[in-house]
């Protein structure tokens, strides 16, 4: 930068250099700036993963589940994974930094294949949502699967007969439900105030639920 002229003129040149480096002025990672994100929220066993698989099949989104990413980290045998496993076995939320970093890295790996992401099981507390939107990209909307505690419990107990998951047992399911009501419900209230939530009654059959999901997804431009 030629720096003989006034400070203001020099600064204009400096600013041009930064602009040309395509740094997002909001501080977001430029790699993910065009991503389109649908948050998938609901209690444990509300059918988030099941419906995401159907959305992928029909619409070709990239499905990233925070729970799956965390379980992959646990399975890797890393030190961080061992700590995560204990938290998950207690039905509590793992640290926000851990889960946000895993999600961001996973999105970057997939962005060249698709811009449309189903971010499943995230945000689970309000700050997860606000940080994601500040550091990555604002969400297009939130799909919320509304199911009673009784139904979620019976689905998970049934799955627990074969899943081998450390958290599909009666005691941890109770704790997961508590965590959902105390920490995740405020997320739904927050995005409802922004008119971004589509609440899907999800007690029925997978097919009937997907009919509603499909209507919502089709009503947006992706
Ligand atoms: P995570 O893996 O996200 O688990 P979850 O949200 O508790 O619930 P699931 O994923 O088990 O259920 P789902 O809603 O996807 O239902 P699914 O389709 O599988 O998280 C696990 C843990 O990781 C957390 O407790 C936490 O510790 C940690 N974690 C994850 N994300 C985090 C975050 N963002 N921040 C911090 N910590 C985080 O269906 C369940 C069962 O029901 C299946 O067997 C299915 O076949 C059946 N089913 C589905 N739909 C129907 C239907 N319509 N009728 C009958 N059965 C059905």
UniProtKB/TrEMBL annotation:
Database matches in InterPro entries: Adenylat/UMP-CMP_kin, Adenylat_kinase_CS, P-loop_NTPase
Entry GO terms, CC: cytoplasm
EC number: 2.7.4.3
Main localisation: cytoplasm
GO terms, molecular function: AMP kinase activity; ATP binding
The keyword rRNA-binding is annotated on this UniProt entry: no
Signal sequence interval, chain numbering: none
Family note: Belongs to the adenylate kinase family.
Role according to the record: Catalyzes the reversible transfer of the terminal phosphate group between ATP and AMP. Plays an important role in cellular energy homeostasis and in adenine nucleotide metabolism.
Name of this chain's protein: adenylate kinase
């Amino acid at each position: 930068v030629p720096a003989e002229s006034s400070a203001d003129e020099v600064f204009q040149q400096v600013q041009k250099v930064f602009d040309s480096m395509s740094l997002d002025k909001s501080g977001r990672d430029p790699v993910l700036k065009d991503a389109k994100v649908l948050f998938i929220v609901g209690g444990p066993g509300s059918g988030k993963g099941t419906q995401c698989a159907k959305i992928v099949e029909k619409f070709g989104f990239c499905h990233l589940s925070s729970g799956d990413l965390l379980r992959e980290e646990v399975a890797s045998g890393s030190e961080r994974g061992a700590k995560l496993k204990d938290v998950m076995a207690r039905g509590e939320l793992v640290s926000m930094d851990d889960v946000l970093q895993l999600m961001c890295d996973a999105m970057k790996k997939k962005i060249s294949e698709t811009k449309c992401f189903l971010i499943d099981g995230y945000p689970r507390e309000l700050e997860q949502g606000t940080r994601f939107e500040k550091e990555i990209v604002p969400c297009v909307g939130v799909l919320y699967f509304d199911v009673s505690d009784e139904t979620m419990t019976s689905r998970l107990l049934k799955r627990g007969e074969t899943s081998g998951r450390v958290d599909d047992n009666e005691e941890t399911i109770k704790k997961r439900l508590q965590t959902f009501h105390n920490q995740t419900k405020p997320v739904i209230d927050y995005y409802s105030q922004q008119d971004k939530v589509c609440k899907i009654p999800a007690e029925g059959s997978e097919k009937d639920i997907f009919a509603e999901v499909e209507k919502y997804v089709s009503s947006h431009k992706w």
